[in-house]
TrEMBL record:
Keywords: Coiled coil, Isomerase
Keyword ATP-binding: no
Superkingdom of origin organism: Bacteria
A single MF term (Gene Ontology): chorismate mutase activity
Family matches, as Gene3D superfamilies: Chorismate mutase (1.20.59.10)
Protein name: chorismate mutase
InterPro entries: Chorismate_II_sf, CM_dom_sf, CM_II_prokaryot
Coiled-coil zones: 6-33
Organism: Kangiella aquimarina
Keyword DNA-binding: no
Taxonomic placement: Bacteria, Pseudomonadati, Pseudomonadota, Gammaproteobacteria, Kangiellales
EC supergroup of this enzyme: isomerase
């Protein structure tokens, strides 16, 4: 590969990183809306069963590329941040 191809690929990755963060931000906004609904119903914010179901679903879809522990390593910080913004 020449340096121009590498630079183009890195540029594409940078754009995807920006899109990923935009999606995480959108997810956070939905989490806040969900939190409001849960509070009105007297439900707790944290649902470990739901977290595990999300990880399992994603693992089933992406297991040829990612292990379950890698998916957990990606999503556990997102779950933690989601809980933090609900409690802010």
């Amino acid at each position: 590969m020449n340096s121009e191809i590498i630079q183009n690929l890195r540029s594409d990755i940078d754009e995807l990183d920006k899109q990923l963060m935009a999606l995480v931000e959108k997810r956070a906004q939905l989490v806040l809306r969900l939190s409001d609904e849960k509070k009105q119903l007297g439900m707790t914010e944290y649902d470990p069963t739901r977290e595990q179901a999300i990880i399992e679903r994603l693992y089933q879809e992406f297991k040829p590329t990612f292990s379950q522990s890698e998916i957990e390593a990606i999503f556990k910080p997102i779950f933690k941040a989601s809980l933090r913004i609900q409690q802010a």
